[in-house]
Structure formats: C-alpha cells, structure tokens
Amino acid sequence: MTDFTYAVDAKGVAVITWDVPGKSMNVMSLEGFRLLSDLVDQGLADAAVKGIVITSGKKDFAGGMDLNVIAKMRDDAGAEPARGLFEGVMMMHGVLRKIERAGMDPRTLKGGKPIAAALPGTAVGIGLELPLATHRIFAADNPKSKIGLPEIMVGIFPGAGGTTRLVRKMGAMMAAPFLLEGKLSSPAQAKAAGIIDEVVADPLAAAKAWVLQAKEADLVKPWDAKGYKMPGGAPYSAQGFMTFVGANAMVHGKTMGVYPAAKALLSAVYEGALVPFDTALKIEARWFTQVMLNPSSAAMIRSLFINKEALEKGAVRPKGIPDQSVKKLGVLGAGMMGAGIAYVSALAGIEVVLIDAKQEAADRGKAHSADLLDKGIARKKVTAEKKAEVLGRILATTEYAALKGCDLIVEAVFEDVGVKADVTTKTDAVTDATCIFATNTSTLPITQLAKASARPNEFIGIHFFSPVDKMSLVEIIKGKGTGDRAVAKALDFVRQIRKTPIVVNDARFFFANRCIIPYINEGMRMLAEGVAPALIENAAKLVGMPLGPLQLVDETSIDLGVKIAKATKAAMGADYPDEAVDAVLFWMYDQGRLGRKSNSGFYAYDAAGKREGLWSGLTAQYPVVDVQPGLTEAQHRLLMAQVLEAVRALEDGVLMDIREGDVGAILGWGFAPWSGGPFSWLDIIGAPRAVAICDHLTAAYGPRFTTPHLLREMAEKGQTFYGRFGAVAKAA
Ligand code: NAD
To answer: 328-503 maps to which CATH number?
Structure first.
C-alpha cells in the first residue's frame, strides 16, 4: 500500500492515482512527493506511454500538505534549519517543474508528454499546487468541492509553486484574494476565475481523452513561451505599479504588519515578478523558508491547525465512553442564543425542540433559522429544499412534554438562577434518566445551577459565543459533580455541529470571558488615566487584536458591562478591584451611550449605524495627559491583562490543557492570532522577559500585573509552556 499507484491503460495513458492508505483525505508527505516523482519519471521514460493523468482514488483530490510534516521538516533540519527547509522545498519545486516540463526540450519546447490533473472533488493547498503544474486541470462538477490555496489562514503561504504559478497565470491583482485571503471556490467559480480549465461530469475520462489529442503547443505554459507578459502588468509598468502599491497598502491595512506570512507572500510575488520563472520559484522558496522559521508561523500552525484539529477529534474526551451523538435536542429559551443553537443543530441534522414561555417567542426563535437560510439562498449557498428540510427539524413550542425522548437539553433562558432552576425541574420531569442537561449561562457557576437538577452528574455547561452561527468556539464547563458521560456528550454534540470545543473547570467567567474582561477593563483604565483614546485602540490593533478594547465594549454593549460589573461587585464585596473601570463604564451608561445598539458609545456613529471615529466627548471628560505611554508599553498592558488571566486559569486548574487555552483564546475572542495564543506568545518572548514586563507593569500600574508564581518559576528554570506542558497535552 503506497500513497500513489501507477497503471497504464490500453490506449497508452498512464494514470497515477493518489490514495493515501488509511486516510479519508489525501495529504502530501515527503515520501509521497518522492514516490510521485518516480512514477512521473516512469511514465515519461516509457515509450508506450502517450501521456499521464494524475487523479485521486478518493472522493476528493487532496486536502493539502500534511502540516505535521512541515513542522517536523523544520524541527528535523538540525543545525542549519534554513538550509534543510530550503532544500526540502526546492526538491518539491523540482518535482513539480519536471511535471510542467514533462520531458520537453527547454529550448525548443518540443518532445514533452501531456500531463493532466483529474480532480474528483476538493483540491486545496498542495492539492491545487500540484494540478497547477500540470498542463490541464479537469474538475468534477460538484458545487460542494472546494478549490483553493488556504495556507495563509494558518500562518504560511503557498510555497510549492502555487504563489508563483497563480500570479503568472492570473496576474497579481486577480490572484490576490486567492493567495492573501485563502479564498476557496467551487469548481465552477474556479473555472470562471481561470484557476482550473474544465468542469465536467467525469474528469478522469475527460483528462484521458484530452491527453490523447493534446498538441505540443498545449503543453507549453505561457511563462515558458517566448514573449510572455504577466497579466495585469509586472511591477515596472503603469498598470502593475498601481497593483503592487495598492496591494502593499491593503495588506498592511488588514494585517497591521503582524503576520509574517502576508508580508513574505507579497515579497515573493513582487520580487518573483521581476525575474524569470525558475528564479521566481527560488525566491518563493526562500521567503517560504523564512516564514517557516518565524516563531509566529510555527505557533499558528500548532494552534490553528494541529491542536485545533486534535481538540475537534476528541483529544480531551474521557476515555472508554461510547459514542454520545445527539439525536434529539431540546433548547430552552428561544432568544438570541437559543435560536442560534437551534439553527446550528438543525443544520447538522439534529431534531430540535425549541421551547419558550410564549408561542410567539418560540416562533420568533425558529424564524431566526428561516432568516439565516434565506440569506443562504440569496447567496446561492442554500436551496429551497434544504431550507424546508432544516426548518422541518425544528419544533417551536411551549410544551415541555415535547422534550420527551431528548438525549440532550441546552438551556438558554434568562440569566437568572430562579428562572433556570424552574426550567431545569420542569425538564427533569419529562425527560429520561439518561438525558444530559446543559446550561449556556455566561456568568452563573455551573455547580450552583446543578443544585436544581435531580442528577448533577448529568448536568454540564455548554457555553456558546454570539453570534452562534459564526463563532466556532464552544466552551464546555464541568461543574463539581459533572460526570464523564456528560463531558463526552457535550464534546460529541460540538463535533456534530462542527465547532471547536475546549473543556474547562467551573470558576467565575469560565475561561474566555475571564480573560477578555480584563482586556476591556485595561482599555477603560487607560482612558481614565488620560491616555489618548486613539493610542489605546491602535496599540491593540497594531499588536493583532481584531478590535480595540473600547470598540469591543461598544459591540458587546455598555449596559451588559454595567450588569456584569454590578453582579461581580455583589459577589466579591470588599475584594472588588475594578472601581476605576466602573467610573468610566457607569458614566457612559448615564450618558445613554450604550454602544453600537444605541448608535453612540466610545465611538460616534452616523444615522445608518456606521462607525465614524472615537467620540470627541471622551477627551472632554478624560483630558489627554501630556506624557503618553510608549506604544509598546500600552501593548504590554493590553496583552498582559489577558495573558496573565490565562496563566492564572492554568494555575487554578480551570484550564487543564494549554492547547485549549491557546486555541480557545484565538477562536473565542480573537486573541492576536499571529502569536498562536497567550501561552504561545509567552513562549515566543520567553518567561524571563515576560517576568521583567510583569514586574515593571506591577510597579507602574499595580498588583493586577503581579507575576504568577508559575511564570516566575518557569523563568528561573529556563522552561517554556509547550516544553513543560506539551508532553502532558500530547499524552491526553
Ligand atoms: P434572550 O433574552 O435573548 O433570550 C432568553 C429567552 O428565554 C427569551 O426568549 C425568553 O422569553 C426565554 N425565557 C425566559 N424565561 C423562560 C422560561 N421560564 N421558559 C422558557 N423560556 C424562557 O437572552 P440570550 O442573550 O439568548 O441569553 C440566554 C442565555 O445565554 C443567558 O443565560 C446568557 O447569559 C447566555 N449567553 C448569552 C450570550 C450573549 O452574547 N447574549 C453569550 C453566551 C451565553
């Protein structure tokens, strides 16, 4: 059993079939590349072979490079990692270039054999870079297949010729969304864009037929032919100048310069466009190597690809518990969250009973699904039949009796212990003894809410983020009495609805909100101290936070902040540390500036709700002081506010696995994705530097920045988080 097999048909077409044993999706390994190279050699050398078709034995073509292998390639490269990586990448270029040249004389461009790619389904990453090196790409007519180069999403860029080939094929401007945003297309869209050549019912048959009639001129890529000009213009042309200057500004505006892969990609494109094709591949390889050696890329691959996938596949699922997939789900409360939970569940094929106190409210909750499906229809992503099918799975009612037969309940009624206790009791009365009860509370302790249940071991927190259909993280919270089957049930449910889970222990604000609240608070403290509002917001964005802290309060609403502050103060009493924050928050509340929803907050908005700029009244109330902190100082405050909370959550045992901390931080609240998450960031800067920063911030701003014991100990012992806790994570 090998990754590629080779067979020549009666008409002399050699078919190389990619079919990695034991995997549902083909992924490329270094051994796979070497084998592919040998088989191409075999086909080119055999006089009886007229041409070659590369296809897949699976329903899809390929899911890309095995990123574990890329990570290993870097780790294995020994004393000269740059050289090892560069040579590895150049080996891949060599194989793909051989396919592209297909034995032709490089001067006369004659004597080559046609090589086509037949894609039965999805072809992404190296799964598209390989076809791009062939002479013609045929894809099956399946609108669900994805074609594209999504590497940028995990902190790298297409480094096996995809960057250079796509730009030379389409021009830099047209290639930009596919390379810089990792945009994926259906086969029909990919054909319309000029990425692939044909969309057909039977790509293998079509590719074989093409190979048998292809002319020599059909095998010559435009960039290998005389007089090639890059579509859209090379950098030193009037048209190209506009493209490249514009692209630089656009990329910098979007990434704030914190993503090394985006910058390296642009450099590879720009520099590559000025030189011949083979030199451009070498330049691409050099930039790719540089990105691979950047700690940010390594951290992004680890969190956003390897560990995210591990968590989705059940890395922290209790062992020995049979499949707990949900068949019938009860959702209590059809408000903003309940309606969203019902939608994502019905979309995943789960039967849903959606309950609210009044029938109109339940119906309104169901209508939310209809609205989202209608939007999908408008964007041609959903069919009318699909809409009917999904809505057919949701029963909107006030009758608790309809919950009979549910194997999971998710409660999303008002955030009130009494109301939640009442619906818990009512549900217990009609459900079976095996039904798991989950609460979507964002602030109330799970252990306390479980008291209302007759079966606290089957009571758990499943905390969604808003908007439910967009946010991919789900925080699962174990109360003191929560049993393993409840955890397994929650994890299996999250897998069904294709989201990413983290499992944490019960403590105030669980994990995500615990870390994000100090970030928001730090922003408001800075404002109260007279730090220029623009500095606060820009410092956050320039370090990779998607929203500045003040904008984040506007989005989540100031009254929610007031509510949480009041509840926290009531619970903590004299220990409450955030009076300075409350002064700002309550003042805003008193002004009636409640954030985006009131069209007025820390920012000003126009009548249509468009955000205009920071509200001028802020500096009238909190005059900007003469001496402003430096950018780095402001960034350290904003980052450490979040990161230290993550470390404390680990120390307290709320967080049980640093992988969950990192993945949860990026997916849950957008923590600077370039860093790989709070623990990865600490590893990048190193514990000694982190301690120095904390000691300085503590002296300057107070005990909330006190260095956690764990961090100080790690600095003394020369440890990293992934060094110290990585093995535990792997064993889990
Ligand atoms: P919401 O006010 O939009 O919805 C609550 C719904 O529950 C309403 O439709 C209400 O009629 C219904 N309800 C109230 N009492 C009921 C009862 N006794 N029986 C049946 N239905 C009843 O609130 P929401 O924003 O959807 O929040 C719901 C829960 O989710 C809360 O616990 C909240 O803390 C939590 N949560 C909210 C968010 C968020 O961003 N809004 C995020 C995560 C978790």
So the answer is: 3.40.50.720
State pTM to two decimals.
0.90
Domain formed by 4-293, architecture: Alpha-Beta Complex (3.90)
How many Å separate Cα 727 from the centre of its chain? 24
| Cα dihedral 664→65→67→264 (10° resolution) | -90
Q: Per CATH, which fold does 513-731 belong to?
A: N-(1-d-carboxylethyl)-l-norvaline Dehydrogenase; domain 2 (1.10.1040)
Q: How far is CA 105 from CA 102, 108, 220, 282, in A?
A: 9, 6, 11, 21
3-state secondary structure of 318: coil
Of 568 and 516, more confident: 516
CA of 499 to the centre of ligand 1 (A): 21
Who lines ligand 1 at CB under 6 A? 332-338, 355-357, 361, 412-415, 419, 422-423, 440-442, 463-464, 466
Ligand 1 pocket mutation pick from 344, 353, 442 by most atoms within 8 angstroms of CB? 442
Arithmetic mean of pLDDT, 308-331: 97
Which contiguous run of DSSP H or E holds residue 439? Answer: strand 436-439
Output the six-digit token pair for 730: 């792997």
* pLDDT 10s digits, 130-153: 999 999 999 999 999 999 999 999
466 Cα nearest atom in ligand 1: 40
Q: Are 512 and 668 a contacting pair, CB within 8 Å?
A: yes
For residue 164, give the nearest of 261, 292, 63, 279 by alpha carbon: 279
Cα(342)–Cα(347) distance, rounded to whole angstroms?
8
